[in-house]
Structure formats: structure tokens, C-alpha cells
Amino acid sequence: MTEKMTEKYAIDLLAEMFRRMNLVREFELRAIAERRGGLIPGFIHSCVGQEATAVGACLALQPGDAITSTHRGHGHLIGKGGDPKYMMAELAARSPGYCLGRGGSLHISDYDLGILGANGIVAGGIPIAVGAALSFAMRKQPNIALAFFGDGATNEGAFHEAANQAGVWKLPVIFFCENNLYGEGTPQHKQAAVKDLAVRASSYGFEGVIVDGNDILAVYDATLAAAERARSGGGPTMIEAKTYRQRGHYEGDPQVYRTPEEIEAWKGKDPIPSFRRRLVETGVFTDADLEEMEGSVFKQLDEAVAFAAAAPRPEPGDALAGVYADVHDGLVF
Amino acid sequence: MRELSFSEAIREAMAEEMRRDPTVFLMGEDVGVFNGVWGVSQGMYDEFGGERVRDTPISEISIIGNALGAAMTGMRPVAEIMFSDFLMCAGDQIANQVAKARFMSGGKANVPLTIRVTTGAPGSAGAQHSQSSESWFLNIPGVKIVVPSTPADAKGLLKTALRGEDPVLFFEHKMLYASKGPVPEDPDFMVPFGKAAVVREGKDVTIIALSIMLPKALEAAEELAKEGIQAEVIDPRTLVPFDKDTLIQSVAKTGRVVIAHEAHKRGGPGSEIAAVLAEEAVEYLDGPILRVAAKNVPLPYSPDLENYVLPGKQDILAAVRSFKIHSK
Ligand SMILES: Cc1ncc(C[n+]2csc(CCOP(=O)(O)OP(=O)(O)O)c2C)c(N)n1
Ligand SMILES: [Mg+2]
User: Is the pLDDT of residue B328 over 70?
Assistant: First the structure.
């Protein structure tokens, strides 16, 4: 069994999957605690329970590939290589944060890593990913773009227009839908008359595939296949990853729209412990190996929180700079 | 008189009209089971059911377009858009369809449609959830623009919107939802559009304050009174239709004007109000028309930056003091 797993996946990749999923989970839990503690001023939409989609999809991409993210974007950032230090500093509204404290959780980005931004507008990032794919195609650059979005976002006009155009132009883009069954408080079946959102792809002329979003290997495989297709001129793919957010839509959400039993049932399908078990049972890693990785994640986040807490706050007047590339008295007068 | 919060007053107006008129209904994202993300429609789903308190998909174009079609054919929809920033997602429906339907049809289309929307900065919500977008629509003839500041006005103006025949954009500031005030119980209590409220009388300076800036202006006026300056505070309440007369009369008395709003200064409602006063009241003015508004940059996430960008009581005080009024 070990053979099989390590034949198919490099051992470093498996380690990275485990490490990054833990990093995402722990980042979320720390951010939630630090928000309660007052270090973080703004809202947080946590992706606890959805680590496998974010990490599995991002690890199937190449460094030069681009992603667009959502309001639930911390996992996407970490998945694509974002540094928790600068993320935590951004959430704490500090100067060394990814966006100098101007963006916060909702708008966090790292253009150096090809992360074209989280987004406060549902579906807002999808046409942007298609634009990145267009740019790669026009410049014959061997890169692709991936748009993360939720189930609810597929009901926005922006999704439809972007998907249609990507289909017509056969652009190297992946439409990655994290279907966590709810858009805020409204269940998917009240928002869409189809059971599987992946079927929507067929109306744009490309394939839609469904994966278990809590199985990181399934997510990775599907994304890698879609990426290869995109890179070799085969055009877009839509991936619908079925998953679940274990916490409220935002921290503080009373969650009147779902039952504690449902939440508990999905906690039983948590993507991290199941992958952990698999790694141990197949003998890829020992319990001790994994504990060490978990410990290093803990330490990394201790450092990230300490960094954020000690980081300087922006000077109020800084707000006037950086609205335009140009500097002109008449711009922000 | 009994007191209600701003959000309770809005809910009461909707619920009373829905009891009275079966064609009134509410639709929007999470307005039903979730009770609205700001809790404004609390309990309405339980009372009226999912047919009349309709949870929609996340589809702003469709929400506004559906409401328009329903309005044209005999219903009186209230369409809720969660944040005024997202009005842009439905931009075509509002600017090109809703606003122009009556005119383009030679008056045949009736559009009794109310678009309720939250506005303003709730604090660290960032650049896409904090904007005050009232003035984006000032340049689009065909929609009425309502910007209430008190619970009583919220209720009375919303009633006027719901019983009227024209499309209304109704801007509810998030930081006003919890504020309390007396609200008449009369189910036919209505506040007419196009009638500004003189909220505090004074002879030295006129402060025209919109939405969240009204409570701030009243606090400022209180402080100014201690310095011997009598500020008159006026709330226009509706930007379209606009009550010029009340403002001009006030300026005729005071000779000095400060216009305060949370929207960005450039192209904000104050630009239009200042222009009207410059055209029609210049002979009364003893000084420049001053605007107190958000600086012309997107609203930042960081509280340090955001507080710097947003206008506050201190900015109103500074503007009034710059007139160097010597109390008589
Ligand atoms: C254009 C727009 N409409 C509405 C919202 C409010 N809103 C924020 S997140 C959300 C739900 C999104 O659901 P989904 O796409 O399934 O993502 P999830 O939150 O489940 O990750 C809504 C309605 C928004 N931010 N932008
Ligand atoms: Mg969802």
C-alpha cells in the first residue's frame, strides 16, 4: 500500500499536503482567537473543514500559475504558498501585512505568488481568472489560471459570462467550485434547481467533474488533470468539490439555517484526520513524523501571531498614497 | 411616544404594509430564514412565509430585474441588496431599466419598486463593503433617493416609498440600525419625500447632514452652542426629490453652510447641494460652502487609516470654526 501511494505521489508532496492543510486549519483557529482577543479588527470567514480543496487544488498548480480567491480565502493563500506571517499582519491591520493593512481578510493578495486577490464581491474573481488565462494564452506563456468560488457564486451573472467566454476562447482556466452546500444561510437546493453544479459546465462546452472535496488526493488528481488539459490547449474544466464549512458563514453567525446534527456528521468527514490516518495506515509516515509536522505548524503560527502583534500600525496619512500609480495633487484632493 | 430602533422601524413599515396590501413582498439574499444579515427582517419569514419573504439566489441582476418585472405587472416588491456596494452588480437593471421604464414607455410602465440597501462604513469592512453610494445614482433621472437618519423618518419615508408608484433607492446606514428614537404608532404615519427636516434651529451657521452624519452634526451643534455659536442642523432626508427651499431659507438666515456626508467628497451628494446653493443662494452667503466628507480614497480596512479617511464630528467642528463666527 505504501508502495502504491508513494509510487503515485512524491513523498514530499504528501508531506506538503499534510503540512499545508494543518497550516490552514491552525491559521483559521488562531485568527478566530485573535479576533476575539482584539488583535484583528475585521470580519473573518473561516474555511475550517475546507482545507483539502484549497490545498489540494493549489498544490496541483505550478508557481507561475494564477489564482483568484474569495471571501473565504485564507486556505487558497496558504495553499499557493502565502506566508502566514504577512497574512496575520494583514488581518491585524499592520503595515507589514500583505496589503499594508488596507485590504484585510476580504482583500488579501500576493501578486508575487500569482494570487490575484481574495474578493469581497461574490463571483468577482471569476472573470479576472479568465482574464489571466487570456493573458497567458496571448503571450504564449505556459501558465494557467484557477478561479476559486463557492456554490452560491455560480448563480451570479459574472460566473456565466466568464465561463461562456472561456469556453468559446478555449482558455487555460479551471473553474474550481467549492460546494459547501450553503451560500451564507441559504442551502444550495434553494439557490439552484440542479443537484450537481458541475453540470453547468456542459452549457459552456467544457467538462464538469465532481470530486469529494474532503479527500485531498481526489482534489489534487482532478486539478492536475484539468491543469494538464488547460496547459495542452484543451481549454477550461469545471471542478465541483463537495465539501462543508464546519463553522458559521462568518464568525458569530448563529447558524439558524442548519442543524447541529448535520454539522457533527460533517465533522466526522473532516479532511485532515482522515488524511492523517491514511498516511499512517499506509506506512508513508509514522505518527511521530506527523506529530513533528504538526508541532512545526504550531510554532510557525506562534511566530506569525507574535510578528503581527509586534508589527507597526500604518500612519493615518498613508491612506492617501497608492490609490493611483500617478502622483498628482489633483487625484486625491 | 414609544421608542424603536432604526431597524425595528424599517421592519414595522414593511410588515404593516405587507399586512395591508397583499401585493407587497420582500425579496433578497438571506432576507428569510436568516432574518437578513443585519437582522432587519427578523421574524418576517415566520409571519409571512417564504412566498412573500423570498430568499433569492446570489443574483443581484436577477433580484432587481425580477422586482422590476413584478412591479410593472401589479406587484409592489421590496428588493433588498445586502450592501450598497453590490448595487453595481445590478447596475444595468437599475440605471437602464428601472430608472427609465416609465419615461421610455411614455408613462405606460408603472414601477412601484423599493430597493432597500445598506450603506456606509460599519468599521473595518474594507473597500467593497463600506461605500456610501447614494450619489452614484444622482446622475440617473428616474429613481428617487432616500437617505433616512432617524427611526421615525425611516418608517415614515419607507411607507411613502411603499405606497408610491415610483422606484426608490432607500439607503440604510449600518451604524444607524441600533440607534433608537420615538416612532409614531399610527399605521398611516408617512413622511413626505422632498421635505427636509430642520432638526435643530440656529442663526449662525447651517449644517446640512445626511444619514450617519446627522447624529454627529447634532453632537457638534451641542458643543458649538457652548461656544456661543447657534448651528441650524438640517437633514434633507431625500436627495431626489430635493427640498431646496428649506435649505435656501436657512442659508438666508445664517449665511454660512457646512454640508456633511459619509460618501467621498468628490462627486458626493455635497457637490450637488453646493452647486444648487451656489446657483440660487449665493447672495446670502458670507463665506465658502464647505463640505465635510470621506477623503477621495477607497475605504481602508485598517481602523487607523479608516478613521482618518472617514469624516467625523471633529471635522464638522473644524469646518464651522473656520468661519470664525463671533457670537453676538
Ligand atoms: C455580489 C455579492 N452579493 C452578495 C454578497 C454577500 N455574500 C458574501 S459571501 C455570500 C455567500 C457566498 O456563498 P458561496 O459562493 O457558496 O461561498 P461560501 O460563503 O459558501 O464559501 C454572500 C451572499 C457579496 N459579498 N457579494
Ligand atoms: Mg457555499
Answer: no
How far CA B325 is from CA of A143, B252, B328, in Å, comes to: 65, 16, 9
Average pLDDT, chain B: 97
Kindly list the residues from chain B whose CB atom is less than 8 angstroms away from the CB atom of residue A185.
30, 33-34, 55
Q: Which atom of ligand 1 is nearest to the CA of A47?
A: 21
What span, in angstroms and rounded, lies between the C-alpha atoms of A53 and A72? 12
Query: How far apart are the CA of A97 and the centre of ligand 1, in A?
Result: 25
Domains of chain A: 2-304 (3.40.50.970)
Ligand 1: which of B56, B82, B93, B130 to mutate, judged by most atoms within 8 Å of the beta carbon? B82
Provide the strand spans (E) within B99-202.
114-119, 144-146, 168-173, 180-182, 197-200
ipTM metric: 0.94
Alpha carbon nearest to ligand 1 atom 12, residue:
A183
pLDDT digits (tens, 9 = 90+) for B154-183: 999 999 999 999 999 999 999 999 999 999
Q: How many other CB atoms are there within 10 angstroms of residue B261's CB atom?
A: 30
* Chain segment A35-93, per-residue pLDDT in tens: 999 999 999 999 999 999 999 999 999 999 999 999 999 999 999 999 999 999 999 99
Q: Is residue B240 in a domain? A: yes
Judge whether B326 counts as a catalytic residue.
no
Search chain B and give the residue with CA nearest A333: B296
Q: Are residues B209 and B240 in the same domain?
A: yes
Ligand 1: nearest atom to the Cα of A45: 19
Clarify whether residues B173 and B313 are in a common domain.
Answer: no
CA distance B197 to B211: 12
Q: Ligand 1 pocket test: which of A46, A70, A71, A179 has the largest number of ligand atoms within 8 Å of its C-beta?
A: A71
Residue B167 belongs to domain spanning: 3-182
pTM given for the model: 0.97
Residue A106 is nearest to which of B37, B128, B307, comparing CB atoms? B128
Do residues B82 and B114 share a domain?
Answer: yes
Q: How many CB atoms lie within 10 A of CB A324?
A: 10
Whether the CB of B282 is below 8 Å from some CB of chain A: the reply is no
The runs of H, that is alpha helices, within B117-266 are: 151-163, 213-226, 244-254
Whether B48 and B140 share a structural domain = yes
Residue A3 has pLDDT above 80, yes or no: no
Claim to verify: residue B8 and residue B148 sit in the same structural domain: yes
> Is B304 in Cβ contact with A103 (below 8 Å)?
no
